[in-house]
Structure formats: structure tokens, C-alpha cells
């Protein structure tokens, strides 16, 4: 039920998401919209942060997942700001991202994924952006309470 309603909100953002996007290595990619689910992305990001392997491809996947998470979350927030639905906002806020609050070790990630300083900076920027976008959602909820 919660996933179903959250997917309804996601589907409303699909026209915006069909455009090609740039990945972390600056190649053009078209995400598989069927496979996009914020909860699943959050869990994959969390798992990579919890148990980083000595695997550069896992690091690249983590960057891609974090970027996709941020991008889709931002599109949802923008849609909600344009056309507020308290019910959908409540549903989304009921599933806060776990990875944002996970205390990961920067040096461990850099070493495990063989990240350059630029890759770390890019990941960190995406990570912080996701946190700020989530805060926008929380503020949107506060604003709706003040109006009602």
C-alpha cells in the first residue's frame, strides 16, 4: 500500500525522467524506469556504505545509485512543490532514507573503492544534496501544517 502510493508519485515524474542523464563518469545513460524505486536505491546505498568491498565497480555503482536517488527525490519534491498532495507527502516522509544517517568512514570508502579526490568530492556533494532535498520535504510538511 505504501509502496503503491509512493510509486504513484514516482509515475507522475516519469515524463521528466525519460531524458538521458549523465552518469558519474560523464557518459550518457538512460535509467530503466521500471527498476527505479527510492526505497531500493536507499537500501543499496546503505548496504554499500555498511560493507564496502575492495571493488572499484561497487564504488562506481554507489555513486550512480546515490546520484539516481538524489535525482528522483529532487524530481518528486519539485512535483510536490508544484502540486501539493498531503497524502503523498506523508507517505514519502514515512519512509525516510536510512543511508543519509548512516555514520560511514570516509577513509574506508576511499580505500575500498580506490576513489580519487574528485570522485569522493562528487559522492560527498551528491550525499549532502540528498540530505538537503530531504530537509526540503520536511519543511514542505511543516508549511502545510501552518496553512491548515
UniProtKB/TrEMBL annotation:
It comes from the Eukaryota. This is Dynein heavy chain tail domain-containing protein.
Amino acid at each position: 500500500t505504501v509502496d503503491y502510493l509512493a510509486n504513484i508519485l514516482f509515475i507522475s515524474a516519469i515524463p521528466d525522467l525519460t531524458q538521458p542523464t549523465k552518469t558519474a563518469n560523464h557518459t550518457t545513460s538512460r535509467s530503466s524506469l521500471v527498476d527505479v524505486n527510492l526505497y531500493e536505491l536507499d537500501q543499496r546505498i546503505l548496504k554499500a556504505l555498511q560493507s564496502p568491498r575492495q571493488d572499484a565497480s561497487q564504488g562506481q555503482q554507489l555513486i550512480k545509485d546515490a546520484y539516481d536517488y538524489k535525482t528522483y527525490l529532487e524530481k518528486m519534491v519539485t512535483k510536490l512543490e508544484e502540486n501539493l498532495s498531503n497524502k503523498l507527502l506523508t507517505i514519502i516522509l514515512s519512509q525516510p532514507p536510512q543511508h543519509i544517517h548512516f555514520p560511514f568512514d570516509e577513509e574506508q570508502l576511499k580505500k575500498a573503492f580506490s576513489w580519487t579526490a574528485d570522485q569522493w568530492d562528487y559522492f560527498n556533494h551528491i550525499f549532502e544534496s540528498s540530505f538537503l532535498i530531504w530537509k526540503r520535504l520536511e519543511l514542505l510538511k511543516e508549511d502545510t501544517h501552518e496553512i491548515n
